[in-house]
Write a structure and sequence with these properties.
Layout (H helix, E strand, L loop, with lengths): L16 E3 L5 E5 L4 H6 L6 H12 L8 E4 L6 E3 L4 E3 L4 H18 L3 E5 L1 H8 L5 H4 L3 E3 L5 E5 L2 H6 L2 H23 L17
Parallel strand pairs: 2-3, 2-6, 6-8
Antiparallel strand pairs: 1-3, 4-5, 7-8
Length: about 200
């Protein structure tokens, strides 16, 4: 059990990630919420339901992608009456970074989609602005291109016209992801091969 930082002390489950081990797209959020902590799976609450719809909008069912977070334990804030969700701190993301790097190394996705400012900053640095730089491509670990968009939970907090505008921006970012995935695989890029024990 990891003890690199204090968020592990209040967790129910460590939420490592799930999905297709040969996925071309890795989706990285900021950290597990209350529902994810209880179930031990990423993006299973309301934000997860919206993420599933977002992925389907570009023709990707959830089971065809790999979904994880920058931190594997739920960051919480004690309000005195309950533990509330909060964004992970830069130190917490640094402590958990070896696990994320290991996931990227194993999967070798073609694209990483960072959801929300904390996830984006974990790849692009603390000066990254989600409102100004979402939808732009950056070089990520192992040369994997990274693009950031708004977190589904942020979308759910919007109302009326603001929600419509944010959804339009997110859909544009998702279309950019789809276009990148639809590009031919460069000859230098290796693709996972299925190995059969029965050849």
């Amino acid at each position: 059990m990891c003890r690199k930082c204090g968020i592990g002390a209040t967790r129910t489950n460590s939420v490592y990630g799930e999905g297709d081990p040969c996925a071309q797209l890795m989706v990285v959020g900021e950290g597990p919420g209350e529902t994810e902590d209880k179930l031990g799976r990423p993006f299973v609450g309301r934000a997860g339901e919206l993420l599933d719809k977002m992925l389907l909008a570009i023709g990707l069912p959830r089971e065809d992608v790999y979904i994880c977070n920058t931190v594997k334990c739920r960051p919480t804030l004690d309000t005195g009456t309950r533990l509330a969700n909060r964004a992970p701190t830069p130190d917490e993301m640094r402590n958990c970074r070896p696990y994320l790097d290991e996931q990227i190394e194993i999967l070798r996705p073609r694209v990483i989609l960072a959801l929300g400012a904390p996830a984006a900053k974990s790849f692009m640095g603390e000066k990254f602005s989600i409102t100004k730089q979402r939808g732009q491509w950056f070089d990520g670990p192992l040369g994997v291109p990274v693009i950031a968009t708004f977190h589904p939970a942020y979308i759910l907090r919007q109302t009326g016209g603001a929600m419509t505008e944010v959804k339009k921006l997110v859909f544009a970012d998702l279309k950019a992801v789809r276009a990148r995935l639809d590009e031919p695989v460069p000859a230098t890029e290796s693709t996972p091969e299925q190995v059969s024990l029965f050849d």
